[in-house]
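re: ur question from earlier - yeah i can do the single chain one, its not a big deal. heres the input i used so u can compare w yours
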Amino acid sequence: MDQVDKDRIERLCPALRAIVNAEIRAGNRVAETWEGWGFVVMLDKPFVQRHTCDANEIQYRDVDDPHYWKSQYRCAAHDQTVACRF
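and the output i got, formated as tokens:
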């Protein structure tokens, strides 16, 4: 069963929270959240759009590994990641 901790979503840095909010408005949904390798919010579907971010703050990566996830936006300063499933 998927677990979503809404408090974790609220604690995302503003740039990552903006990405999650834009994805939700576009029809995606948060599938799960967890802490372990940092702090992760996983979206149910691939990102609906490419998000423009300050490259000094947020890094985009195409992970493309079925053992992990399709792609991600990461804030190293806050050790937070928004990732998406395939």
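The first helix runs from residue 6 to 10. not sure if urs matches, ping me
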